[in-house]
Q: What sequence folds into this?
């Protein structure tokens, strides 16, 4: 086995600022086709800078080479499998980009009157209806900009609902110990208290623990399904009934919707609220690749509280509805991340109803195959998950001293992105892999072979693995300090 | 030294307390069990010498690959020294939690706080729960 099975990615790339030389320029801006006016007439003096900012000065080809070089060192789903569990890093079809770049969408001004943007409003309206159908719910807001903001919106809806009924003593939100960290963070931000529920030995929410926790102070339960172990909450109907009987609401974190789309609907499971991650399930870019979108679907009893504005249709004429007295208000500027909505709309329309179901089935099948190939070397404490599985590196660590973190770092030498590690917290030395439906059998095999090869290296040459990565421009970084002592400023040398 | 040494005292929040050479001073760190649960420690944020803390007040944070946790002062008191080596090499908390991975040295403000600490047997019961 060579030191780096994947080619060495080369030394670090200088910043674009370091390539800069005074007077060099990339392109000439065309003359405007409208009359110009001096800046001072348009913008108050207090908002104008005294001197122009120092921007990097490079010719066009230098800029292109710079960013091409960086992109070659970056890992992205256009390059290879990106098995980051719980993130659904599926391929983003290029047709999504083509549609989002159509002049009628990309060139829209947010203040354009509704009668002049019926097409864009129509897309939003239709996307809302499609998401509502996928969720089995009655109404949708497209406003939230990301999954976590979708969660916050959902929990604020929960709060508004209880307040509207005078049920203000409901201050507790129940969350299982397998949940994404954003769930308790959201609950705290919304002014509620978190009550953690233990999972049972099968990795599911314990119905017994739920029964004991329920009382008239519970505002609701946040439950990801399938949960972060990839395990379907098979008692969901009983769980929903218990929560509703106690007067609480059911919130589904839709992070793992890729396992269910077109197969099962949160609304039918008894959920009242669900958020989508368009950047996961519906193939819009993420992971540094662009903004996300976290629409929220609700059952009819929560509809009056949805954020402003919503898109409404009167006999096919679309408008923005601002007259919603019970609304929780605005949660995003303008209308959400519209470009992302175009991409998700395109994806859903390209796949159609049967395609969405096939997508979920293929995602589960791919994960079952991958799990079967790996489980003899990387045990699955809670069994094979649906669309993702959580392996444990505990055995490998005991035998060889090589930790899950080392395995993840060594995967970079094989040309893969690392999987999610040390999450969920209830699995020791967790290694969480989600292949998505994107990958072919050959690519899944390549990934499984890499992990098995790393396990063999851990036995024969543990230092090779604990010293990884070897193929990257930099080795292991001081992640703790990098987060605290951010240094993102560039000072041009004097002169 | 690893495990749950009998000579040390503990908190329910997984700090240990060792008596220092100087009178009325203690050394505080996190237990072997705690470092094992956290995984690779990547950063330890410690207070400044001279800072004072109440009993069970947060005196710092510890960041590991898995999670970030608060560090709780086992007693009220004043910081007389911090382990500066942790700035360069936070992994000392993993490799030698009771030795080179110590965190702060405190001058005990109220000696009766020491009575609130639990012994190794009681701590073991918490860990094995």
A:
């Amino acid at each position: 086995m060579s030191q780096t099975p994947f080619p060495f990615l080369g030394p670090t790339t200088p910043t674009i600022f370091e390539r800069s030389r005074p007077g060099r320029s990339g392109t000439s801006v065309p003359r405007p086709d409208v009359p110009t006016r001096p800046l001072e007439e348009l913008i108050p003096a207090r908002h104008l800078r005294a001197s122009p900012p120092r921007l990097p000065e490079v010719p066009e080809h230098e800029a292109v080479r710079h960013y091409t070089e960086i992109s070659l060192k970056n890992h992205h789903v256009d390059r290879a499998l990106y098995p980051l569990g719980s993130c659904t890093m599926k391929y983003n079809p290029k047709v999504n980009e083509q549609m989002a770049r159509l002049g009628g969408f990309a060139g829209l001004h947010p203040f354009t009157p509704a009668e002049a943007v019926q097409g864009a409003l129509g897309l939003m309206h239709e996307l809302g209806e499609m998401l509502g159908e996928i969720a089995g719910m009655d109404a949708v807001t497209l406003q939230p900009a990301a999954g976590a903001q979708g969660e916050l919106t959902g929990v604020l809806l929960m709060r508004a609902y209880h307040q509207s009924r005078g049920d203000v003593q409901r201050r507790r939100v129940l969350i299982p110990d397998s949940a994404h960290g954003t769930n308790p963070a959201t609950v705290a931000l919304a002014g509620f208290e978190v009550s953690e529920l233990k999972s049972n030995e099968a990795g599911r929410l314990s119905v017994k623990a739920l029964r004991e926790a329920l009382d008239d102070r519970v505002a609701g339960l946040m439950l990801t399904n399938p949960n972060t172990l990839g395990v379907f909450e098979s008692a969901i109907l009983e769980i929903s009934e218990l929560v509703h009987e106690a007067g609480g609401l059911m919130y589904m974190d839709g992070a793992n919707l890729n396992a269910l789309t077109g197969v099962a609907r949160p609304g039918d499971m008894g959920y009242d609220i669900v958020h989508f991650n368009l950047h996961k399930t519906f193939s819009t870019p993420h992971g540094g690749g662009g903004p996300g979108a976290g629409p929220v679907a609700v059952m009819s009893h929560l509809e009056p509280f949805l954020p402003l504005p919503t898109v409404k249709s009167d006999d096919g004429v679309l408008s923005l509805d601002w007259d919603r007295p019970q609304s929780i208000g605005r949660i995003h500027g303008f209308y959400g991340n519209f470009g992302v909505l175009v991409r998700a709309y395109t994806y859903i329309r390209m796949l159609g109803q049967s395609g969405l179901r096939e997508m979920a089935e293929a995602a589960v099948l791919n994960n079952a195959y991958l799990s079967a190939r790996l489980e003899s070397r990387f045990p699955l404490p809670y069994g094979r998950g649906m669309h993702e599985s959580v392996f444990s590196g505990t055995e490998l660590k005991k035998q060889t001293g090589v930790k899950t973190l080392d395995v993840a770092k060594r995967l970079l030498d094989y040309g893969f992105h690392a999987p999610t590690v040390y999450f969920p917290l209830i699995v020791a030395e967790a290694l969480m892999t989600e292949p998505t439906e994107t990958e072919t059998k050959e690519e899944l095999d390549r990934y499984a072979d890499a992990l098995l090869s790393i396990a063999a290296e851990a036995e024969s040459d543990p230092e090779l693995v604990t010293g990884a990565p070897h193929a990257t421009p930099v080795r292991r970084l001081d992640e703790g300090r990098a987060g605290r002592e951010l240094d993102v400023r560039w000072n041009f040398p004097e002169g | 030294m690893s495990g749950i040494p009998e000579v040390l005292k503990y908190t329910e929040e997984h700090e240990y307390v060792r008596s220092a050479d100087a009178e009325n001073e203690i050394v505080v760190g996190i237990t072997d069990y705690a470092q094992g649960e956290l995984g690779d420690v990547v950063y330890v944020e410690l207070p400044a010498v001279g800072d004072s803390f109440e009993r069970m007040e947060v005196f710092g944070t510890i960041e590991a690959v898995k999670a970030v946790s608060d560090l709780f002062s086992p007693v009220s008191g004043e910081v007389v020294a911090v382990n500066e080596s942790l700035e360069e090499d936070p992994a000392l908390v993993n490799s030698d939690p009771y030795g080179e991975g110590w965190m702060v040295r405190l001058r005990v403000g109220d000696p009766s706080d020491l009575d609130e600490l639990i012994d190794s047997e009681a701590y073991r019961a918490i860990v094995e729960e």
Observations:
- The first strand of chain B starts at residue 9 and ends at 10.
- The two ends of chain B are 23 Å apart (CA to CA).
- The first helix of chain B runs from residue 32 to 38.
- Chain B has a mean pLDDT of 93.
